[in-house]
Amino acid sequence: MYNSIKGLIAILYTFQSRNKRLSTYFFFFLISCFFWFLNMLSSMHEVTLKIPIVYKNPPPNLILSNDVVEEIQVRVKSPGFSIISYNIFNYKKIELDLSYANFQPIDNGQEIFWLINSKRNSISRILGNSMEILDVNPKKVNINSKNKSKKKVPILLSSSIELEEGFWIREEIKISPDSILVYGVQEDLNNIKCITTEHLRVDNLKNNLELSLPLNNLQDIQFKESEVSVSIIVEPFVEKIFNKKVFVRNLKPGYSVRIFPDNIMVAIKLPKEKYSIFNADNFNLEVNGDHMFEDNNTLEVLVSNLPSYVRLERLYTNRVEYLLIKE
């Protein structure tokens, strides 16, 4: 209707431009057309309108077909004013949420479908109260899908963390969740070893840090989680350096041994709040006497019973020489 009126006005305008004597008549003709047009707009008309479809929340365990319905056609009865207003100003789309769709098993997949008559309320809100819905096509919108393979992979933190001098990370950085299920074609999943976070950069960290960090997307791979929680616990530490005697364990009867050196320097770090309760006698430095008969010139120095809150930084020699004496 709108295009027909527009074409008629264009023809008449061209005709009167070529015949100036008809200008006066043309003016009154335009007035008549205007009132006729208003009358047409106020009258009821039946037309077919198109509403675009947008799909949301696709299931991560399914591969959706690219052949999907992109719009629905709605036959309505409405005043001309409402029809023109909809065509010019209405850009709304109807949302079809796959989380609330109907599912029917097919070979190696699922048919996902909606009965459009159940969406009449949503369609009515888009069109407006002045339009009466007569018919909707198609009656059913469906998407065929194939099952995806799945795989559980760990999440790795990508980070550059610099601590304030005199601070350390008290315990392993916590990531929650620490692993996720990913979905895709099996060939693609075979190449995935982990999912990484977006890069986290922190300078001069001296306070505990908790934040959410997005995950990096992978092409043709889907996963439900879009971000993870990261928790970093820091605390001040002190460093302590002291000498400690090396003992021999598992020495066979009938032998004695001399260690060179028998005292070595130890460097440790421990939380500042626990420095007052630390005692160097709480752990031992040892060599294993069983290894003295394996034709070794030196023995590795082992640390035993080190408190969990203490971090061994260095032994200022980690191997010692020995002299085995048969008694």
Can you walk me through this structure?
Helix 1 packs antiparallel against helix 2 (23-42). The protein is of the alpha+beta class. Strand 5 and strand 6 form a beta hairpin. The strands form 7 sheets. Strands 11, 18, 20, 21, 23 and 24 form a 6-stranded mixed sheet that branches. It is built from 5 helices and 25 strands. The mean pLDDT is 84.
Please sum up the structure shown.
The chain has 5 helices and 25 strands.
Topology:
Blueprint: H1 2-18, H2 23-42, E1 44-56, E2 62-64, E3 71-79, H3 80-89, E4 94-97, E5 102-106, E6 109-115, H4 120-127, E7 132-137, E8 140-147, E9 149-156, E10 159-163, E11 167-169, E12 174-176, E13 179-184, H5 186-189, E14 195-196, E15 200-205, E16 209-214, E17 227-232, E18 234-249, E19 255-260, E20 263-271, E21 284-288, E22 298-300, E23 302-304, E24 311-315, E25 319-326
Parallel strand pairs: 1-4, 9-14, 10-15, 18-21
Antiparallel strand pairs: 1-3, 2-8, 3-7, 5-6, 6-8, 9-13, 11-18, 12-17, 16-17, 18-20, 19-25, 20-24, 21-23, 22-25
Helix pairs in contact: 1-2
